Amino acid sequence: MKSSAIAHSNIALIKYWGNWDKVSPKLNIPLNDSVSMTKYGFSESIHLQTHTTIEFSEDFKENEAILNNNPLKGRDMERILKIINPLRNLKKIDYKFKMMSFNDFPTQAGLASSAAGFAALTIAAAKALSLDLTQEELSTYARLGSGSAARSIHGGFVYWYQGISHETSYAEKICGSYDFDINAIIAIIDEGKKDVTSDLGHELAKTSIFNPIRIKKSHEQAVEIKAAILNDDFKKVGMIAEKNCMFMHSVMMTSEPALFYWSPITLKVIKKVLYLRKSENLDCFFTIDAGPNVHCLCRPEIIEYVQNILENIEGIEKTILVRPANDSYTTNEHLF
Ligand code: DP6
């Protein structure tokens, strides 16, 4: 009962921010549909992926989880159990497990490390338990660990339906990694852990007076961006993604207490992207998750040119080039 899987992180083009209170907040049912691109880093050794091995055995005395050589406890272990417990129930066993995981990128720095991590864990655990689940069903279990992990079950471009229950809040593939030609440059400003976790941020979303309008617009934008992706309309995808990102950050900044994930360098990158669009007529757009780092979306033809410009901004630690990733997969390469 041992299996391994590799999953990739994703960048939200339409953001998930805040959970629906009408159902248990523990289920991570979002306030709106969201859309993402699963991403594969191709510039160096950082592929933005998590490799996870899990084994269940009658002989294990305790549950054990290790991430990047560090044992996981407390809240981290609780989030793992949110996925493992229902999967063990499905199989009708209560064996303890051993899990080992490696991220090849900074953990909890707004690069969606938990999305890749919980997606890989779900896929590996379902296989180890010989559960025959569809990709959509897998996405509902990954969602229990971290909302955005629901989307990382799939490669390419992904639509996560808000839903009204555990079963109906699932992620579905819009199209594959080769169906829409888009790349991104991640401008890394700070690789450290974020000050305010997304969990707390989701809680605070409802304290912003702008949240109701963000929710309404996000639903519309999710449908629009899906159509634009399928029509290969890069400019429209970029414009919608950028606007939706600003809606989320407006909500963050007007929460009580206010949340500021940006650093002064974040704003420098935003201004540079706007300048490139206006003065050099380049189709590039920005989007930012819950952290200071900026994803600059562009077509592959100009990625190196834009990368060079962003790397020259003072305060940029480094850049990572990404393209759409293929599906997550199981592997026979076990970590223990
Ligand atoms: C801003 O609760 O999925 O990235 O568990 O910290 O990875 P982590 O976050 P999660 O919230 C993600 C929030 C977001 C937007 C998004 O990915 O949709």
Account of the protein in words:
- It is built from 9 helices and 14 strands.
- It has helices spanning about 75-90, 115-130, 135-145, 150, 200-205, 210-230, 235-255, 265-280, 305-310; strands spanning about 1-10, 10-15, 35-40, 50-55, 65, 70, 95-105, 155-160, 170-175, 185-190, 285, 295-300, 320-325, 330.
- The chain is globular.
- The chain is about 35% helix and about 25% strand.
- By secondary structure, it is of the alpha+beta class.
- Strands 2, 3, 8, 9, 10, 11, 12 and 13 form an 8-stranded antiparallel β-sheet that branches. It has a 6-stranded mixed β-sheet with strand order 6-5-7-4-1-14.
Give a quick precis of the structure.
The chain is an alpha+beta fold and 336 residues long.
SSE inventory with pairings:
Layout: E1 2-8, E2 10-14, E3 34-41, E4 49-57, E5 64-67, E6 70-71, H1 74-91, E7 96-103, H2 113-128, H3 135-145, H4 149-152, E8 157-160, E9 171-175, E10 183-188, H5 198-204, H6 211-230, H7 234-253, H8 264-279, E11 284-287, E12 294-298, H9 303-311, E13 318-324, E14 329-331
Parallel strand pairs: 5-7
Antiparallel strand pairs: 1-4, 1-14, 2-3, 3-8, 3-13, 4-7, 5-6, 8-9, 10-12, 10-13, 11-12
Helix pairs in contact: 1-2, 1-3, 2-3, 6-7
The protein binds ligand DP6.
Ligand DP6 binds at residues 12, 15-17, 34, 112, 114-115, 146-148, 198, 289-290.
